[in-house]
C-alpha cells in the first residue's frame, strides 16, 4: 500500500486479523492518544479538520482510513458499499462489526506506544456506537459517541415519518453494550454522547438506549438547530465535523463550538495530560 501524504500527518499501516488500514497521526507524540473514527461521508476534509483541531488542543490523534476513497466525500456510494461489507457487518442492528476488533487492537497499540497511557476514542455517525466495544479494554477511558446513527431510515430522514423499532437499535451486539456499561460503572468512567435535537439520522431513541444501559455513567448533550428552516428541511447531523465547518464564523456560543469544547474538556478530564 503506497503512502498517501497529508500535510502535517505521519502514517503507518496497522494490521490485525489479516486486515490492514492506514492510520494518519497528528499532534505531539508526547500528548495523550485519541482515536478518531471518521463517519459516512468518508475520510475527507471535515474529519481531517477535526483531527487537526484536537491536536491543537493538546492530543496525539490517530485517524484511520476505514473506508472510501482518500479525501473524497461520497456518502451514498459508501453506504451502499458498507451495506454489503462483512467488515462492517452489513450495517446490521445488534451485530458488532469485525472492524471493531481491528479498532480494539489499534487502541492497544496506541496505548503501548504511549508508555501504557489511557486512550480516548471518538466515533461519529455510523462509527458512533463503536466506542462501546472499545471501552471493554482497560486502556480506553474516554469514549465519545457523536450522533450514533446506525441503523437509520432514509424515509424518516427525508420526511420525519416512519419511525419504528430501528430507532432504538445500535450497530453493536447487546452483550458488548452491557459489558461496556458494566465497565463504566466498575471503573467510575463516563460515556459522552452528542447529537442535535432535530437530527433525523441520529434519533433520540439511540441516546435513550445508551441511557438505559449506562444510567448515570452517560453524559448526553443534545444541541438546538440554528433555525426553523434547518429544523424542517435540512436537520443538522454532524456535530463535530461538517456542521462545525458550515458555521465558519460562529462564536463560542454556537452549538458546534460548545460541543467541541466539551469534548476537549472531557478528554482532558479522563486522560493524563502532560
Features of this protein?
single chain; 274 residues; alpha/beta; Rossmann fold; eight-stranded mixed sheet; 10 helices
Shape: globular
Q: Which second-level CATH architecture applies?
A: 3-Layer(aba) Sandwich
Low-confidence stretches: none
Using the coordinates above, name the CATH class.
Alpha Beta
Work out the oligomeric state of the chains in this entry.
single chain
**Count of distinct strands:** 8
Q: State the helical fraction.
A: 25-40%
3D architecture notes:
By secondary structure, the chain is an alpha/beta fold. The protein has one domain (about 10-270): Alpha/Beta hydrolase fold, catalytic domain (Rossmann fold). About 35% of the residues lie in helices and about 20% in strands. The protein contains ten helices and eight strands. The protein has helices spanning about 45-55, 75-85, 100-115, 130-135, 155-160, 175-185, 205-215, 230-235, 240-245, 255-270, and strands spanning about 10-15, 20-25, 35, 60-65, 120-125, 140-145, 190-195, 220-225. Strands 1-2-4-3-5-6-7-8 form an eight-stranded mixed β-sheet, sandwiched between helices. α1 (about 45-55) links the parallel β3 and β4. The protein starts with 9 loop residues before the first strand and ends with a helix. The model has no long low-confidence stretch (mean pLDDT about 95).
Topology diagram in text:
Layout: E1 10-16, E2 19-26, E3 33-37, H1 45-56, E4 60-64, H2 75-83, H3 99-113, E5 119-124, H4 131-134, E6 140-146, H5 154-159, H6 174-186, E7 191-196, H7 204-214, E8 218-223, H8 228-233, H9 242-246, H10 255-270
Parallel strand pairs: 3-4, 3-5, 5-6, 6-7, 7-8
Antiparallel strand pairs: 1-2, 2-4
Amino acid at each position: 500500500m503506497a503512502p498517501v501524504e497529508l500535510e502535517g500527518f505521519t502514517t503507518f499501516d496497522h494490521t490485525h486479523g489479516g486486515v490492514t488500514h492506514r492510520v494518519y497521526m497528528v499532534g505531539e507524540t508526547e500528548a495523550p492518544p485519541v482515536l478518531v473514527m471518521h463517519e459516512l461521508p468518508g475520510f475527507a476534509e471535515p474529519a481531517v479538520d477535526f483531527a487537526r483541531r484536537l491536536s491543537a488542543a493538546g492530543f496525539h490523534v490517530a485517524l484511520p482510513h476505514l473506508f472510501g476513497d482518500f479525501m473524497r466525500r461520497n456518502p451514498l456510494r459508501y453506504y451502499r458499499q458498507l451495506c454489503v461489507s462483512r467488515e462492517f457487518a452489513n450495517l446490521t442492528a445488534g451485530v458488532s462489526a469485525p472492524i471493531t476488533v481491528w479498532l480494539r487492537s489499534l487502541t492497544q497499540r496506541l496505548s503501548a506506544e504511549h508508555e501504557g497511557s489511557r486512550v480516548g476514542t471518538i466515533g461519529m455517525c455510523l462509527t458512533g456506537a463503536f466506542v462501546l466495544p472499545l471501552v471493554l479494554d482497560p486502556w480506553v477511558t474516554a469514549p465519545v459517541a457523536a450522533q450514533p446513527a446506525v441503523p437509520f431510515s432514509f424515509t424518516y430522514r427525508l420526511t420525519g415519518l416512519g419511525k419504528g423499532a430501528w430507532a432504538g437499535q445500535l450497530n453493536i451486539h447487546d452483550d458488548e453494550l452491557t459489558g461496556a456499561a458494566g465497565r463504566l460503572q466498575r471503573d467510575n468512567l463516563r460515556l459522552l454522547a452528542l447529537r442535535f435535537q432535530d437530527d433525523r439520522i441520529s434519533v433520540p431513541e439511540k441516546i435513550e438506549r445508551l441511557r438505559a444501559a449506562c444510567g448515570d455513567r452517560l453524559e448526553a448533550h443534545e444541541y438546538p438547530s440554528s433555525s426553523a428552516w434547518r429544523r424542517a428541511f435540512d436537520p443538522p447531523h454532524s456535530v463535530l465535523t461538517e456542521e462545525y465547518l458550515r458555521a465558519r464564523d460562529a462564536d463560542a456560543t454556537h452549538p458546534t463550538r460548545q460541543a467541541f469544547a466539551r469534548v476537549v474538556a472531557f478528554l482532558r478530564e479522563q486522560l493524563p495530560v502532560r
